[in-house]
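thread: overnight batch results

M.L. [08:02]
morning all. the overnight job finished for the chain we discussed friday. pasting input first so we're all looking at the same thing
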Amino acid sequence: MKPVIICGGIGSKMWPASRQKSPKHFLKLIGEKSLFQLNYEILRKKFEPGEIFLQTNADQAKIAMEQEPEIVMENVFIEPEMRDQGPATGFAAAMLMKRGLADEPFMLIQADVLREPAEYFLKLIDIFDESIKREGKLMTGGMKPSFAVMGVDYLVVDPETHRMSKWLGRGTKEEVEGYLSTGEALIHTNHYAWTARKLLECFQKLRPEWYQPLMNIVAGDDVAEEYGRMPKGRIEEVTHTELANGFVYELPFRWIDFGTWESVSKYLGQNPSTGSENGVQIDSKDNLIRMPQGKMIATIGVENLVIVDTGDALLVMKKDQSGRVGEVVDKLKEEGKTELL
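M.L. [08:03]
and the structure it wrote out:
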């Protein structure tokens, strides 16, 4: 198995800390190490540096190598531009094939989530590796929610065989709740794993407009030119078909997605030893406060607030409004204030 860490996106809902030059997965959100570092170091318990691959853009590659200097430069796949997850996943497969790893299983690993306990994540990698070598089928992971969370993809899975019986996608609340009541619905958490050859053969059948530029890259043609030829699109345009023949495993570990400041606050509240709040709070509680080093803050009579000060920007909001931070980023874009993005 070859792990491919995926670093992409900015995490606009984590503004003002998360920006183009400091995306959320490189921030120390929950302790002394970034999410990227935590994920890399988990993989190092099983893999040598030369066995770990990284896919990102040129700017984020620099940050990654500053945080983990042992990363092997030849194992870093640089995306020339953002073309969405479909072309990006195909690019990972093409670059592995170009390195003679066409038939070696690989897994895509998001750098902006936390997996606890780590040893269970490593066990899942072994399960996927063995299954792909035995069955040759696409693999992915899912998580059973306690209630219907909307705006995410759902898979209906037989818990005994791990076969997907239906790609529910972003179904209606009534549909999701119906399958949740039977214990069959899982939130799709990615962790796609397959071989480069199998994935590209799938592209050839279902998205030939992605397949040909990728094979040109394998053949040695200009990466930027060929990558730019691929239309944008989600990888699910391909995988939702192939998963009918593949396997979906419920994750045997906690999968924690830090998508908003509220999610960070919830994690820190459950794990108080991983972080602390700055300053003095009087008759105040349940506030998430991040201040520049050396800056004092005092709060009186407030609760359930998020206060994030980066020196050039200050965010103050109720925790339950965390999902709206992206609106601030959109407003800054409209006003041309790129220095704050």
